[in-house]
From TrEMBL, chains A, B:
Pathway(s) the chain acts in: Amino-acid degradation; L-alanine degradation via transaminase pathway; pyruvate from L-alanine: step 1/1; Photosynthesis; C4 acid pathway
Cofactor(s) in the UniProt record: pyridoxal 5'-phosphate
Entry superkingdom: Eukaryota
Top-level class of the enzyme under EC nomenclature: transferase
EC number(s) given by UniProt: 2.6.1.2
UniProt keyword annotation of Transferase present: yes
UniProt protein name: Alanine aminotransferase 2
Function noted in UniProt: Transfer of C3 units between the cytosol of mesophyll and bundle sheath cells to maintain a nitrogen-carbon balance in the C4-dicarboxylic pathway.
Length: 481, 481
């Protein structure tokens, strides 16, 4: 039977990433611990697991934005818009917005297939949000609403990659979705290293070196992925650095794939988010000069609506015939889900000053941002304070990525157990404290260095309790080896 | 610039399907007509366009099921579950279900990433619905909740196809999603013809002939797609026919890809829907004997929730290692959207006798089914009554697929305009009556035959008006040629 020993396509060249993506592996070890703790409570020296492994805000207590959920709820059940009692349960602001959205929908009941790019009025809302953010125009024709950023990234790879001879530049430490997607579409990932000593900045000479090596090896490098703010590295690029990157991609004829999903997660005063499109336009380059795809989603930032699978990509500087092909490929999955489309429009076109719910919306948004900023600072300081650990600032995104300078004896002990040293450390940490992190080897860190990725998502109270436990464990670990 | 003349991967082997999928092309001609009619109202001899081209129920007036939308609305805004006023707007039934769903969710606020296969409790609901339908057990571990059936089909092709030497048997006339997906994943479609004279049934000797030809041509045929009820052909297979197919796939070692998305769209007394899994189990075959993937979605049937992108696949008879790989691939897009997951669980585990909202739910469901059945019969009779047109019964699904026996002069006139004869007919029909249908050449009909695909989705009142217009047009067309 084929199904029993299906020589799955992927086995040929599937990545050996044991700690891939939150939703899949990595989970297993933690699941076993969960089950054990459920069976015999009190069997461990900690009351619960602290989940610093998952980039999943709402699973860790982040509250959804009230306005977003009210609008969604009304659009799901448009009958509510005709009932007086609805005013007792929903803000006028949400009622007005929902009414506007429903009126722009095919069939006016929010369940029909939409255009494969997404509903026109919602794309207009996204485009106006982008224009307001950047100060440069954005056109709804260039917006594709998508089921989260991951679908958009997959679609881009599908379009760009023709064969294994096509390469795509990607940062290391990496976000494994990129390697997975490139491999699944039969291409070759061309990694470039971020500079840990330079605040995880991107050094053009290093990218150029990697590009040239790839070309010598016979690859046609077609695009460059830049993640800003960085995942898993948490940096926010400086404008100067961004300008260098734009110049480089323009000169080398590379499509820029700008992963900007953490644009609302910036925590430091001296850095601001600037989209790569804005930087390119500011340099005077228009769509005849450079091709840029920008990815965004409602999964992170203040929305944290991961499970809703909403996002968009803005595609600039592509030919009309290419855009037609992209629309055709998008149509193979018919259309992005309507709930995600609505959420994306709300996130990019939120309540404005003067709207009844503006103040509540801003308060909820700022609460989340300030709390994340505080946790980012607390965690980075805690890691930095440990002997044998260094940690760059968490300027943005939702991760600390501290480096552990492991003693030779620890490395030897890990080897004896057939583990990478950082996995060994992470397992010991989990075992002793219930703190779940992801070892850096899941992200292709620089050879000979060891890291852990720790989200800043657990609540402030949890982080407060977690830090002394982390310190205690780390000291005893370092003493042991 | 790469983006400007991007030699898109797909151009190499992208299908030449001018009338692909509702959401994309075919639209264009109709869009132009819409714009024209908006600019100069009254310029045409018909007041509006009758959309028989799109399989998009809610865009054509099908109402969503109240219970479904109430539950969705509550799950989006769980704060409602804590308010007394909610009882004035929502049924107790929906409130209970929403509460149960929310309690089973990570973070209890319906916005977190879920397991890549979907939330366990919702998969349990789906599995119990399958077991109740079939009378054979179903396991939540075998259920993958997906963003509609199209994502599931794409994922299956990604798993099955290794190279162009891998073939997948698909019915002609085809549903173009299959050819698109197979080509996108680099495989080869191996078509087999359905028998128009045999009520669009599937003749095993024909499938066997195609399989053998493919093997002689050097292909490894790995799977067979069966669409039941049929799209675009509207047949419901007899159990005897289904048994033959199961025996054939088992003997030939083919994975059965059973597209069963129209399982709730059956309109004739003498045919019933039976899942292929049920037929296989009834024959005594278990998962050691045959591999079956069944696709279902909330887009059709009585739900009609196309834009919500909900669906599932049940994968039976695959090895554990293969299942692990499938989970890994599913995790690349992280998780299916939560709204779609919820809807799928509701459709498969609807209110039961004794639940407060059972009667209302059944009434809404039956209303939709009976009205569709009536329209199916009316349209098929109308087509059959026309000179030079023959039409099989519409036993299920949502399409009539009548054959037009075009006069030689019409074929010649079409050629002169560089069109296929059925496109020529469809354009003339649209032009004269505003009735939009899809020509059969979009579905790879048998050579030398001409068809149109006409959905049964416009409301009964619209169909009543449409039929005399159709007759009048057809007669004058036949007279002209």
């Amino acid at each position: 039977i084929i199904g029993h020993s299906l020589p799955v396509n992927l086995k040929k060249h599937w990545f050996d990433c044991t700690i891939f993506l939150s939703a899949y592996a990595g989970f297993r070890v933690i699941q076993r611990l969960e089950q054990e703790m459920e069976k015999s409570p009190g069997s461990r020296p900690f009351p619960e697991i602290t989940y610093c492994n998952l980039g999943n805000p709402q699973a860790l207590g982040q509250r959804p934005i009230t306005f977003f959920r009210e609008v969604l709820s009304l659009c799901d059940n448009p009958a509510l818009l005709r009932r007086d009692e609805t005013r007792m349960l929903f803000s006028p602001c949400a009622i007005n917005r929902a009414r506007k959205i429903i009126e722009s929908m095919p069939g006016r009941n929010s369940g029909a297939y939409t255009n494969s790019q997404g509903i026109r009025s919602l794309r207009e809302a996204v485009a106006s949000g982008i224009a307001a953010r950047d100060g440069f125009p954005s056109r709804p024709e260039d917006i594709f609403l998508t089921d989260g950023a991951s679908s958009a990234i997959n679609l881009s790879m599908q379009i760009l990659i023709r064969s294994q001879e096509d390469g795509v530049l990607c940062p290391l430490p990496e976000y494994p979705l990129y390697s997975a997607s490139i491999i699944l579409h039969g291409g070759t990932m061309v990694p470039y290293n971020l500079s840990e000593d330079g605040d995880w900045g991107l050094e053009i000479f290093e990218v150029k070196r990697c590009l040239e090596e790839a070309r010598i090896a016979g690859l046609t490098v077609r695009a460059m992925v830049i993640i800003n703010p960085g995942n898993p590295t948490g940096q926010v690029l400086s404008v100067t650095n961004q300008e260098e990157i734009v110049e480089f991609c323009r000169k080398e004829g590379l499509v820029m794939l700008a992963d900007e999903v953490y644009q609302d997660n910036v925590y430091v005063e001296d850095r601001k988010f600037h989209s790569f499109k804005k930087v390119a336009r500011s340099l005077g380059y228009d769509e005849n000069d450079i091709s840029i795809v920008s990815f965004h989603s409602v999964s992170m930032g203040f929305s944290g609506e991961c499970g809703r699978r909403g996002g968009y990509m803005e595609i600039c500087g592509f030919g009309d015939d290419v855009m037609d092909e992209i629309r055709k490929v998008a149509s193979v999955t018919l259309c992005p889900n309507i709930g995600g489309q609505i959420l994306t429009s709300l996130a990019m076109d939120p309540p404005k000053l003067g709207d009844g719910c503006f103040e509540n919306f801003m308060a909820e948004k700022e609460d989340i941002r300030l709390s994340l900023a505080k946790r980012a600072k607390t965690l980075a300081s805690a890691f930095s304070s440990l002997e044998g650990m260094t940690c760059n600032r968490v300027e943005g995104a939702i991760y600390a990525f501290p480096r552990i300078h492991l003693p030779a004896a620890a490395i030897k002990a890990a080897k004896a157990e057939g583990m990478s040293p950082d996995l060994f450390y992470a397992c010991r940490l989990l075992d002793a404290t219930g703190i779940a992190v992801v070892p850096g080897s899941g992200f292709h860190q620089a050879t000979g260095t060891w890291h852990i990725r720790c989200t800043i998502l657990p609540g402030e109270d949890k982080i407060k309790v977690m830090i002394p436990r982390l310190k205690e464990f780390h000291e005893s670990f370092m003493n042991e080896f």
